[in-house]
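Q: I'm teaching a short session on how sequence maps to structure, and I want students to see two examples side by side rather than one. Could you give me a first protein with its sequence written out and its structure tokens following it? Keep the formatting plain so it prints cleanly on a handout.
A: Of course. Example one:
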Amino acid sequence: MNPYGVTLTLVVFYLFSELQRRRKAVYTNPVLLSIVLIAILLKLGGFSYGSYMESAVFLKFLLGPAVVSLAVPVYKNRDLIGRYAREIAVGIVVGGTTAVLTTYWMAKLLGASETVLRSIAPKSVTTAIAIGISAKIGGIPSLTAVLVITTGLLGNAFAPELLDFFRVRDRIARGLATGVSSHGLGTARIITEDELAGAVSGLGMALNGVFTALILPYLIKIL
């Protein structure tokens, strides 16, 4: 198997990570820049996305252990997280519901069709769960996947800066807001800045996925 996908991904991400280390800014976000550059290189080189993913299958395999590893900081900070269990639970319910309602109504005001509305509603939960929800409520799973990834990219690029702008200093609140709104990619960013915030973000991502999967099929009927 040609490992060009693994090599390309690692080299490009390393170079942009070094760029961000030397010039820390929103526009040097390595995840966003890596996706854009790799897409351009694949297009220019005449490589299909399928062949790229096949050659980068090892990195895709590592995604599972990476997500599971988020349990480590949760366990390390379990006592502090436990003291905020009530606040976290309220944050999941309010944040998860708000993520669905604001997205749904904004898209509706812009004239989106019912199918698109059902596709966009689960965009704030992780891809695997969002695709399943989308299929169940009559959305387009492939469109949902794109919207989920876009949401995660925006969270990865802007979440900490937005939290700073609105003067959200509490570490629990920062983590919960990031995990509920921008799932895995947002968590990947916030955990590099604060382990406790990252732990809460990972927990929020998981709990919001379960919460949204349970309520959205019923909520969409009301909407």
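Q: Perfect. Now a second example for contrast.
A: Example two:
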Amino acid sequence: MTSILLLEKDEIARILDRLASQILERHAQCGDVMLVGIQRRGADLARRLARLVENRLSRPVPLGILDINLYRDDWTSLEGKPHIGRSSIPGSVDDSVIILVDDVLFSGRTVRAALEALMDYGRPRAVELLVLIDRGHRELPIHADYVGRAVNTGRHEHVDVLLEERDGEDAVRLTSGEPGQPLAQP
């Protein structure tokens, strides 16, 4: 396997700053906006985005964390035991604009599960999607409203997002496997 560095720490910081600006351009004072990060790295990115937006607004922005493991469609047997994490949604999502945050958009199945999980909390006015990396290969009709970087990938490649909070460093790497052997996305 080979690995190529796509983004390093400073580039990730610049992208997150740009994405925070785009949120503010679209939603001005973010009065009805709630950022909701998809566990795990999406939650880490949402925390960073919330700090950036809060610094510009000089006030807090609601921040939620969503665990989607019970909503995934790839648990096909009783042998697989998903790790169930915590969701934390700070208040009602009814009539809010929810900005779902994730690290990588691939098939769209994670986002489908997140939408289903989110609906258990109420009915948002709108849901927008923000991703650090959009790598293509959609299996569902899902697109991101905010994209940090679009990366053309093969199905046999894997995008690894490493974040300081979880991995001890900030980096995005593209890893190539053997053609014809798709690598599973976490």
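Q: What should students look for in example two?
A: Point them to this: Residues 37 and 43 are 4 Å apart (CA to CA). Also worth mentioning: The longest strand covers residues 97-105.
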